[in-house]
Amino acid sequence: IRHAPAPVIHHHALHELFWCESGRCMQLTATRQVENAAGELFFFPAGQDHNSNGMPGRVCQALVVNFDVALVGGDDDDDAALRIVLAHLRRRALDGDNRVPLSGAGARAVARGLADLVRECRERRPGWRAAIKLRMQEVLLAILRDERVLPALADEFRPSPAPERLDEVLRYIENRYGDPITVARMAALSGLGRSQFHVLFRRATGRTLIDHIAEVRVRAAERLLTATRLPIIEIGSATGFPSLSRFYHVFRARRGCTPAAVRRGRAASP
Question: In 3D, which of 63, 36, 193 has the Cα closest to residue 121?
Answer without folding.
Answer: 63
